[in-house]
Write a structure and sequence with these properties.
It is built from four helices and no strands. Helix 1 runs antiparallel to helix 2, helix 1 runs antiparallel to helix 4 and helix 2 packs antiparallel against helix 3. By secondary structure, the protein is an all-alpha fold. 79% of the residues lie in helices and 0% in strands.
Length: 106
Protein backbone atom coordinates (compact mmCIF):
# COMPACT_ATOMS: atom_id res chain seq x y z
CA UNK A 1 0.00 0.00 0.00
CA UNK A 2 1.08 3.50 -0.67
CA UNK A 3 2.15 5.69 2.20
CA UNK A 4 -0.31 8.33 1.02
CA UNK A 5 -3.21 5.88 1.37
CA UNK A 6 -2.15 4.99 4.91
CA UNK A 7 -1.84 8.64 5.87
CA UNK A 8 -5.26 9.36 4.39
CA UNK A 9 -6.85 6.48 6.28
CA UNK A 10 -5.22 7.63 9.52
CA UNK A 11 -6.56 11.17 9.02
CA UNK A 12 -9.98 9.72 8.23
CA UNK A 13 -10.03 7.65 11.42
CA UNK A 14 -8.96 10.65 13.51
CA UNK A 15 -11.80 12.67 11.96
CA UNK A 16 -14.32 9.92 12.70
CA UNK A 17 -13.23 9.63 16.33
CA UNK A 18 -13.17 13.40 16.81
CA UNK A 19 -16.65 13.84 15.33
CA UNK A 20 -18.11 11.02 17.42
CA UNK A 21 -16.57 12.51 20.58
CA UNK A 22 -18.09 15.93 19.87
CA UNK A 23 -21.45 14.39 18.99
CA UNK A 24 -21.46 12.40 22.23
CA UNK A 25 -20.87 15.56 24.29
CA UNK A 26 -23.49 17.47 22.31
CA UNK A 27 -26.09 14.76 22.94
CA UNK A 28 -25.15 14.56 26.62
CA UNK A 29 -25.55 18.33 26.97
CA UNK A 30 -28.92 18.29 25.21
CA UNK A 31 -30.14 15.36 27.30
CA UNK A 32 -29.03 17.14 30.47
CA UNK A 33 -30.83 20.34 29.46
CA UNK A 34 -34.02 18.41 28.72
CA UNK A 35 -33.91 16.47 31.98
CA UNK A 36 -33.60 13.06 30.34
CA UNK A 37 -32.60 10.44 32.93
CA UNK A 38 -28.98 9.23 32.69
CA UNK A 39 -27.88 11.79 30.07
CA UNK A 40 -24.35 10.40 29.58
CA UNK A 41 -25.51 6.81 29.18
CA UNK A 42 -28.27 7.87 26.84
CA UNK A 43 -25.84 9.93 24.77
CA UNK A 44 -23.34 7.07 24.60
CA UNK A 45 -25.79 4.46 23.37
CA UNK A 46 -27.63 6.73 20.99
CA UNK A 47 -24.56 8.36 19.42
CA UNK A 48 -23.05 5.02 18.50
CA UNK A 49 -24.36 3.41 15.39
CA UNK A 50 -23.22 2.76 11.88
CA UNK A 51 -26.06 4.37 9.96
CA UNK A 52 -27.31 7.03 12.35
CA UNK A 53 -30.23 5.05 13.69
CA UNK A 54 -29.28 6.11 17.21
CA UNK A 55 -29.58 9.78 16.30
CA UNK A 56 -32.98 9.22 14.77
CA UNK A 57 -34.11 7.36 17.90
CA UNK A 58 -32.81 10.22 20.06
CA UNK A 59 -34.68 12.81 18.02
CA UNK A 60 -37.89 10.84 18.49
CA UNK A 61 -37.19 10.18 22.20
CA UNK A 62 -36.42 13.77 23.14
CA UNK A 63 -39.86 15.01 22.03
CA UNK A 64 -41.22 13.76 25.36
CA UNK A 65 -38.96 16.11 27.30
CA UNK A 66 -39.43 19.85 26.73
CA UNK A 67 -36.36 22.05 26.63
CA UNK A 68 -35.85 24.05 29.81
CA UNK A 69 -34.23 27.46 29.95
CA UNK A 70 -30.71 27.46 28.59
CA UNK A 71 -28.01 29.42 30.38
CA UNK A 72 -25.72 31.49 28.16
CA UNK A 73 -22.75 29.32 29.17
CA UNK A 74 -24.46 26.12 28.06
CA UNK A 75 -25.65 27.74 24.86
CA UNK A 76 -22.09 28.85 24.09
CA UNK A 77 -20.84 25.32 24.85
CA UNK A 78 -23.47 23.88 22.52
CA UNK A 79 -22.41 26.20 19.70
CA UNK A 80 -18.74 25.34 20.29
CA UNK A 81 -19.50 21.61 20.16
CA UNK A 82 -21.44 22.06 16.91
CA UNK A 83 -18.53 23.96 15.35
CA UNK A 84 -16.05 21.33 16.50
CA UNK A 85 -18.23 18.57 15.02
CA UNK A 86 -18.09 20.45 11.70
CA UNK A 87 -14.30 20.59 12.02
CA UNK A 88 -14.31 16.81 12.51
CA UNK A 89 -16.37 16.37 9.35
CA UNK A 90 -13.87 18.55 7.48
CA UNK A 91 -11.02 16.38 8.81
CA UNK A 92 -12.86 13.30 7.53
CA UNK A 93 -13.26 14.93 4.12
CA UNK A 94 -9.54 15.73 3.95
CA UNK A 95 -8.67 12.16 4.94
CA UNK A 96 -11.02 10.77 2.30
CA UNK A 97 -9.53 13.04 -0.38
CA UNK A 98 -5.96 12.06 0.53
CA UNK A 99 -6.93 8.38 0.44
CA UNK A 100 -8.57 8.73 -2.99
CA UNK A 101 -5.55 10.59 -4.33
CA UNK A 102 -3.27 7.90 -2.94
CA UNK A 103 -5.38 5.18 -4.57
CA UNK A 104 -5.40 6.97 -7.91
CA UNK A 105 -1.60 7.17 -7.92
CA UNK A 106 -1.27 3.41 -7.55
Amino acid sequence: MSLLVLIGLAILLVGIAFTWYQLYHLLALDADLRGIPHPKGTAFFLSSGQRGEGLLAYLLYRKRFPLTRISPEKQARSLRLKKMACVGIAIMAVGACVTVIGLSIL
